[in-house]
Amino acid sequence: MPPTILERFLDEEATSYVRGLIRGAYAEAAASEVIELREFSFNTFDVKLNFVRGTAVIFDVLVPNAEESLPLPKLFELLFEEPRP
């Protein structure tokens, strides 16, 4: 079974820099009542964070109509979980 868009994003694109950008967007949104959306365009994936709905959508820009949605808490868990020994 081929990897999902989320798995590919985590493996191919979610560098420490990308994780830092997403973490920063979350911190800004948590401190503000005005920020509702944040969108990022990376090399092969775009990420849309909707803080009002609590969702994230990851788009594979190389494949038309290829996207995967998930709850924000799940994305943050996958991006920022501590490595297990």
Structure description:
- By secondary structure, this protein is α+β, with helices and mostly antiparallel strands.
- It has one domain.
- 38% of the residues lie in helices and 26% in strands.
- It is built from 3 helices and 4 strands.
- It has helices at residues 5-12, 16-30, 72-80; strands spanning 37-41, 45-50, 55-60, 67-71.
- The protein has a 4-stranded antiparallel β-sheet with strand order 1-2-3-4.
- Strand 2 and strand 3 form a beta hairpin.
- It is globular, with a radius of gyration of 13 Å.
- It starts with a helix and ends in a 5-residue tail after the last helix.
- The mean pLDDT is 92.
List keywords for this structure.
85 residues, alpha+beta, 4 strands
